[in-house]
UniProtKB/TrEMBL annotation:
Keyword line: Cell cycle, Cell division, Mitosis, Nucleus
InterPro entries to which the protein is assigned, alphabetical: HORMA_dom, HORMA_dom_sf, Mad2-like
Keyword Cell division in annotation: yes
Cell compartment(s), UniProt: Nucleus
Record PANTHER family: MITOTIC SPINDLE ASSEMBLY CHECKPOINT PROTEIN MAD2 (PTHR11842), MITOTIC SPINDLE ASSEMBLY CHECKPOINT PROTEIN MAD2A (PTHR11842:SF11)
Protein name: Mitotic arrest deficient 2 like 1 S homeolog
GO biological process: cell division; mitotic spindle assembly checkpoint signaling
Pfam families to which the protein is assigned, alphabetical: HORMA
Residue ranges of every copy of the HORMA domain listed in the record: 10-153
GO cellular component term of the entry, any: cytoplasm
Domain of life: Eukaryota
């Protein structure tokens, strides 16, 4: 059975891409998608998070945040979903659904709230029993938002 987590990311468009990047990295660390030794502490708005030190992971996440940044600035990005799959069965084990809410929230308070929600959810979950991989799904207002989206293989 797939476990679903719902978290709101509130903030100014200029901060949301950074929140998404940091949140995905923190989920990968907390859920041990990659060996935790392969992460280093980094900061966003004076809040620490774990940043993957893996070239492929960082390139993929940078590509995603670059591709979504225009939709964010146009306030078209509705949600962002991180799916964790079992390598063995290809079954979705977890999906972390981030609802994007465009506000004038203070950046430091918002990222602290997001990380707090991630940690609270992880504490309720059982450890993942299988080696996992992740993928990302974005939902954009209107079909025209999907033009130029590059599918990850």
């Amino acid at each position: 059975m797939t476990e679903s987590v719902f978290i709101a990311i509130c903030g100014r468009p200029e901060h949301i891409s950074d929140y998404i990047f940091a949140s995905v990295n923190e989920i990968l660390y907390q859920r041990k998608v990659h060996d935790q030794k392969l992460f280093a502490l980094n900061k966003i708005n004076n809040q620490s998070y774990h940043l993957a030190q893996l070239k492929n992971t960082n390139e993929y996440l940078q590509k995603i945040t670059t591709q979504t940044s225009q939709w964010i600035f146009e306030q078209q990005l509705d949600s962002f979903i991180v799916k964790l799959f079992s390598v063995r069965t290809n079954q979705v084990l977890e999906q972390w659904c981030f609802k994007i809410i465009y506000t004038e929230t203070e950046p430091q308070q918002e990222i602290k709230s997001i990380f707090g929600q991630i940690l609270a959810e992880v504490q309720k979950m059982k450890p993942l029993e299988h080696k996992t991989v992740f993928d990302i799904v974005v939902n954009v207002q209107g079909a025209e938002g999907q033009k130029g989206w590059e599918k990850c293989e």
